[in-house]
Design goal:
homodimer; 221 residues; alpha+beta; Arc Repressor Mutant, subunit A; 2 domains; 4-stranded antiparallel sheet; 8 helices; DNA-binding
Amino acid sequence: MASHECVQLVPIFNDLATNQLDTIESIVRHHHYPAGSTIFSASDALDTLMIVASGQVKVYQLAANGREQLLYLLQTGDIDGEAALFENQQRTSFGEALVPTEVCSIRREDFQNLMRQYPSISINVLNVFGKRLSQLERQTTRATTESVEARLANYLIETAAALKTDTFKLPLKKKDLATFLGTTPESISRKLALFEQQALITQKPGKIIQINDADQLLLTE
Amino acid sequence: MASHECVQLVPIFNDLATNQLDTIESIVRHHHYPAGSTIFSASDALDTLMIVASGQVKVYQLAANGREQLLYLLQTGDIDGEAALFENQQRTSFGEALVPTEVCSIRREDFQNLMRQYPSISINVLNVFGKRLSQLERQTTRATTESVEARLANYLIETAAALKTDTFKLPLKKKDLATFLGTTPESISRKLALFEQQALITQKPGKIIQINDADQLLLTE
DNA sequence: CGCGACTTTGAATAGCCTCAAGACATGTGG
DNA sequence: CCACATGTCTTGAGGCTATTCAAAGTCGCG
């Protein structure tokens, strides 16, 4: 793995010079997780900041009844663990590598020192927090006020927008997509079939989705 | 209104000395909102930090289908607007005073200066963010994985815990409570009647709820 | 190529929402 | 201080969406 691999990837270190990145890189630890392995669990101590260098991590919670809720899908450059960088807390969620994944971590104490040294970092972290909060607020609103159909339509539109293409491969298994959207794999199958029947999308083998009529899809209630 | 009224209330200014609080108080603006009035709307510019000095503010979003989702209930000492203290953004939610409410505000620019001057503030803000994120994550998980019955039971338990008493008055109209829990006023009525029938709670006139069996209530699925 | 995991499809059910009407409370003006 | 008006809450009946359970079909990995 190249030096800088993690540190360069992360927006929160954006404003720093190369030699400063070197400093940070030297206090970072590298980890590898095979597909399907657990990276952290609820009730683990939360005392490191985690950076995804490559791969894909699903972050989820378990409800009292055992059902799973997918909260975030972390990709290259995403971070997690910022929630308690200054307070002793326990994790409340689980992290699982969906594919082989490289992770770098910084201990809480080291990160606090970094923030004292480079104030721009704390401002960047605040911005990351802010975006995540806004995103979660929207997700909560949708989950509780809109139908499964509307939520799925929205997800397809947003995924296409993020990837800047009309044709893309679903980045998740239907099972995981279901827990993300707060529904079941069966319902997703049915709704996708419905969209296809309405000619709004085309499904191709390999979880490939092609969006034919984004405007109409957005009108789904 | 006394000086310091707002500034003293807010945990993010906890670590500052009295004369520093004076400085901050001098750059704060005071506002009064009658019950039922709108404090801010979605698409408003988000360029001030808001502190609730007294009263109660409901913060909600509107979904595409017009349905309302209550995200937060701000009480004395709570803040809002931190989400975009460093980036130009628009609001995505609405704020409405439920009772006569006093609010103080600090302009983004002034707050940025404060943070540069007193680094402890940014650390406190990060902690506030972290807690709000954790809370929203739990709320999202519950909203999408648990039944209306379980969500209501949980809400009652948590409210009782927060107020440190078994008997309390519901702080919201059923309509607002419904949008908070992602359900309808009718369903809340029915579930409360069910809990009472099971002797888990007792309802008294004036939205007073008495919890008789918290343990059993928590087991509601 | 075969096995296990994922996905699709079907039928039945359950939980929740909608709509509507009546009861209650709350606060206002006379 | 009472009477009334308005908004809020409760209760009932009906319908619909989404879940559950089960079984067959498909994909992809070793």
